[in-house]
Structures
1.
Amino acid sequence: MTADGQIGEEAGTTTSGWCDPRFSRVREVFDGHFAGGEELGAAFAVYLDGEPVVDLWGGVADRHTGRAWQEHTPALAYSCTKAVTATAGLLLAERGLLDVAAPVSDLWPEFGRRGKERITVEHLFTHQAGLPVIEEPVPVEEFEDHPAIAARLAAQEPIWEPGTAHGYHALTYGFLLGEVIRRVSGKSVGEIVAAEIAGPLGLELWLGAPDEVAARAARLSAGKRAKPKDAGGGGGAGASGAAGLSGAFEASGGSGAGELPAPAETDAGAGAPSTAARLPGQGPGDPIYEMAKASLDKDSLMNRALGNPPVHKLPGGGNHPVILRAGWPAMGVVTTARGLAGFYRELTAGRILRPETLRDAMRRRVHGPDRVLFIDSSFGLGYMRPALTFLTPARGAETAFGHTGMGGFLGLGDVEHGLAMGYTMNKMADAVSGSMRAHRLAEAVYDALT
């Protein structure tokens, strides 16, 4: 089970890499995903106490050309970016350049109007600012102009009173926190990551991919987007406890639905009886039901948060060179599984942030129903903590931190258990039924610990 060239026989897919014998079950799970047709191409890397114990890859990086997924194939890992951006901000806080408790307007005067005067930097880290949506459509010409997009948010009113609730700022998180970081440091988040994190530590991780990296990146393939007629399809989000809940979150874009989608063409509205009957969950009022219903409503807060800037207007969506190059601080990181796991290895070892900084950043600031996603989410200072939106095995329920990425990507660290994991792939999870691939792999890792 540890040799190179293992075969997923049903799919005829060769997987490569290595596993420590203690983690042979991880290899079985990884190969099983290919054998079952759940993967096109993927990679998974794990460090235990700083040492590599899992390093696997396989399949195809581009289904159109048949290009193989290689050892160093990177991929756009979507919202795994948020943890990297948070770390850049926390570096500045460690140096006394950024006060997390300070009003944003102290650093960004134009922001302090229209009900945003009391929004703090911590509110940005914890998705409490009430600004999950950019109200005016962002033109494609502005996609690489981060300050211009941030200025649009500075002109808006919050959707809810800041600090009173939290809701996933799927795209705006990066433009908001990124602008604060730029004003404090004079650098973009991508520049800080390159100069102070990825570069010095030799990580295969870029926030703003160079042309040669973009050229060899995996091409993402979107999963199905649910429609009313099949909204309750097999394995739906409410079908089987935690697995179903993970699938529902993936519908939101937090960890899976395909390329950042255009808002749903279908307006579920109140939901025709035939549609409502097939939605997962227990009916109106149930978070899973409400989340699935929102995913079908083009005007829902969820779809509005995911749909602007409108990545779907670019040919290939997230595969377009503009997106790979732009380095959006909420969803633009391009990385290998090894690079993502290496980021958490360095973070948990205290080589990026001081241990006390990380411990404080991991402390849960918010937990409970998410105003955008409906189901429970939990955040420290930018890092996801275990909740329905960040499912972790039982042994990591109080110790794991990290971030998912749309489609099924996962970056996870666990200081107490000495773990660091990174999972990348290119077959994006289906909209409602979702994917449990990363969770199964993480579960196999935790199960191997003695």
2.
Amino acid sequence: MSQDPEQAKKLEALLKMLAISKGDTSKLTQPQRKQFEEYKFWKTQPVSRFDDKVDDEGPINSSQRSEDVPDEPLPLLDEFQWCTVDLTDPEQLDDVFILLNENYVEDQDATFRFNYSREFFNWSLKGPGWRKDWHVGVRTKQSGRLVAFISAVPATLRVRNKLIKSVEINFLCIHKKLRAKRLTPILIKEVTRRVNKQDIWQALYTAGVVLPSPTATCRYAHRPLNWSKLYEVGFTGLPANASKTQMIAKYTLPKETDTAGLRPMEEKDVDKVFELLNKYQSRFDLIQVFTKEEFKHVFLSSKNVVYSYVVENNGIITDFVSFYSLPFTVLNNPNYRELGIGYLFYYASDADFEYPDRFHPEGSSKLRKRLNRLISDVCIKARDLKMDVFNAMSCQDNSLFLDDLKFGPGDGFLNFYLFNYKVRPIAGGLRKDNSFDTEKRSSVGVVML
């Protein structure tokens, strides 16, 4: 499994410090101390260790019983109290909206921040089978203000050939002023307790940092759609020996799409596309298995959040592709308040179905050609929706088109983790130097929001 060399170097240094200090963090910097505490917490959890050798894949701890799970959560500091956030209540939905838009992930220079919409939360957190008590919050007793949040949504995973009843953990957010209060481990334990009460013991989660121990590592890639704006807000720089005019020309897309039969997906397409996606997803080692009800919710329920397209010719649907919108707020810029961001989501193609081997040279060549045209057209669709950059990961078969379509490798890496499940490393579509691997590609087929 490939890892960012810089992250690996930092991790090695941390492990040395752990061995030397034996718990003494007095000489560590604040970031080192935070990483130390995170590592110390995960050592207490049923997760794979860095040096684990996995012979048999499966649950780490399989002896738990839901009736043995405590009915009450861990105690909080006196000024805080647990709550269940009711997203059907507009006021409580607003609480989550405000907390995440003001305190969730932003870049290190505090220039950009995710700008979630209320519709995005309804789409991502209220799919089929969602549970109100899996939307966990912490409020201050005095004001009732929501200051921390974490969520779980039900998901059936397939890890290689095994189906796992699971949840996906997302939107862990703590108010900036409270991040020294050690709320993160308590939030994780509380959402775990609530999920365990439903006799579910596995979870999928992601993080940009290296924790014990990644199942897979993928890399972000960015394709400028409006290079001028990206440059003006500081999202991208001007390369040496290049002019602004040259960069604008480099990333200019055709005015019209090129794929015959490309159109928005409709309700009538569900059965055919559901079958196509399932067949395409079968090539990967880590996927989410959708029911038809879940499929309809994920790809058709939120027109302003997720965009789904099919390619139909002579009554046959040969391709499916989707992307979702999650803009950035631009901080401290007098000219722009928002960046439009598109994220490649799930797709499927029958281009290489005639070849039983996913890596057959002729099949890979046909798939590469098909995906290059399809994703290029998706970029045009995103541009026409006023999006300024289009993001993708090195997961799925993306390595076949990322370089061809001028996606630049990003600085960020996303690590995939399985809770209470040990598994051999799964390819993330990266070579040892972290460039995109067009030959082996990725075996990660799940796309996390």
3.
Amino acid sequence: MDVTIRESAVAGTTQAPPSKSYTHRAILAAGYAEGATVHDPLVSADTKATMRAVTAYGGTVDRSDESAIAVEGFDGRPETPDDVIDCANSGTTMRLVTATAALQDDLTVLTGDDSLRSRPQGPLLDAIGQLGGRADSTRANGQAPLVVGGGVDGGTVAIPGDVSSQYITALLMAGAVTDTGIDVELTTELKSSPYVDITLEVLSDFGVTAEQTDDGYTVAGGQSYGPEDGTYHVPGDFSSMSYLLAMGALAGDDAVAVTSAFPSAQGDSAIVDVLDRMGATLDWDQQNGEITVERSALSGIEVGVEDTPDLLPTIATLGAAADGVTRITDAEHVRYKETDRVSAMAEELTKMGAEVEETQDELVVYGEDTDLHGATVDGRADHRIIMSLAVAGLVADGETTVTGAEHVDVSFPNFFDVLSGLGAAVDR
């Protein structure tokens, strides 16, 4: 699907979509439990992949209630799936449920689409091997398809932290139901550490204790998952919220108000600080969970995305519409997402008239030398690239057509409905 956005203003109130990160973890945690009801989940292409995995391991997922998912879990003892687990485009699913596969004695095969089969899984496979499990890449390149099993019962692993924090999340979630638990020793600095903070928060809400140590993280074995009263509520998603706040700061002639914006462990809440530093007129009522923002004269800043890789596309768009220079640093790991998001934003914003400079670890956007104009841009089958380019289209002269726009279904299925509802000129 191609979507065309014309230069236009936005205004009004909209609700932030539920957090994808929390939804993934909550659904799998409910699978590790006897069962639980997950309220206000994000139902998207990615989270459906995690639901399928829970079912493959012997659980059941009931989505008959539009506002909640009822999960009957496998109670810490996953079955060997009858078939291959297809994780589609969801890297979070693949990494989290690869560790689940290591708990069962036989073998599980995990795969995904072309993009997912190009993403690195080697450090997690090596960690499972250190625990005495079997974890192979069928092509011997550290990428899916994967074959995993061996009935691990805990131990100590050494793993790099600068490729993906999801490896640590996967090991902690699985480690709680092993006999002896898992100690994770980091061999490099941890990137995206707020995502592990999210994991620790969800584990705690499900009655599981895990903690940070001097060398990494640890989780005791022999624990049982089970949230209080058997229910869990998913908070709003700051990664998705970033596009709503950015469109308000760039095109909100009247204020854009975003609800369900309650404080949480999400690192991407840093978008509020980024906008504030750039000069946005913004107010966050944390008690009531509402952020209001309006069109503002923005100035470029330097911002590191070591812990907030998903914000790079949004910040790049803001930089293209700001005065001065926006320098996005600590960005190499952003190249290993659904697509190389550093190059993708550099190339697509250039089509729209932006002056950019790309290095391995940085993206520099020269807003002072940029006059954005409409163009046909490639969404790269990446939800975050698509939404960021759509926001850029609001302030580009003429019409901007984003190709492959259906992939917003990964994290924000009704994004273009919301955009239109706020007054943007959107043609599908």
4.
Amino acid sequence: MVVQTAVVGAGTVSRSHLAGVRKHPDMELVAVCDLDEQRARERAREFGTMAVTDYTELLDELDCVHVCTPVQTHFEIAKRAIEAGVAVVIEKPSTVTAEEVEKLEELATEHDVPATVIHNHLFYPAVRKVRRMIDDGELGEIRSVNTLYAGLTPPDMVNRGSWVFELPGGEFEEGLPHPIYSLLGIGGLPASEADLSAQTVLSREYDDDFSYDQAQVQYVSRDGALCNVTMLSGTLSQRLHVVTGSEQSVILDEINQSIYQIDEEYTNSVVTRSKKGFDLSAAQLRSTLENAKSVAVSRFDDSWETEAKTDSHSAIIGEFVEAIEGDGEVPVSLEQSRWTIRVLEEIRESARRRVGDLEKMASDGTDAADPQADVDAEATVDAEL
């Protein structure tokens, strides 16, 4: 089966989709669509296909649509495609609200149409390896997952486009799905909404009215693991996952794609504590050599198999083609995407509550940053007692 495909949206991220579609042996790129005709033509020329401004004109001849437009338009585009029986690959975040994802889930089930979302950080080679280790039970029962994504883009910096300024967290919020879905994919989905909590901070002032630029989320997974993700802007970059199991633990560094396994007790003596440093260095060296080998192989081997192993977008596209052909599950479920948006909603609500509390303090004449205010309040309570 050759999957007839169009990419809707000709912005920056479309290149990753177009490259994967063009390289996949079972996909044929039919068109690039964008409301900006000139942009559509430029991208179409780059990838040797047709340019259109209305994707709905092609739905009758398509098997798959890639949605690479601003998030505010994702729901309507995906809805139209699914109702026409066309499979959809949606860029993250899938929609603005969790309710919209839920409606897409219902439509996909009703029309028996595969639908997935680009949660590409979960398909980095080292992340896939850790997920396999978890699934195979190598770590035992997962007790906790702690994720740190530091150095995310500040709210007022434009990467994706000016549309991000419509989000409460600006460009910072646009990047939050990556650490959120990474935690969900590694640690598992929350047991319930009651097990979900979030905190936010606005660390400095901006010209625009942003609500937060730091965030943290905690929940208990369906398997009883304590899961936490901390997301920071304006710092040096770190992307770490510490996965603690009953049998062994791993530290996964996404930036250099290294995995450090902890499978022995290092606190018994000075010698064993010193050995931990040696083992960590050895693990980093092995990962560096493996990464260098992968890069070298990819330069001389442009086969789809190599592409799917080394490129996270291509890995998702490859698995999704199999799902369209009826040979597998979708790589990222809409349920995982729905929880990703639900976590984002919890973060937004936390920011609204914090802003509301600050405004109330200001109207009451209390300086939230003044520690003396707390002392005076305690003294008043003591006097009343």
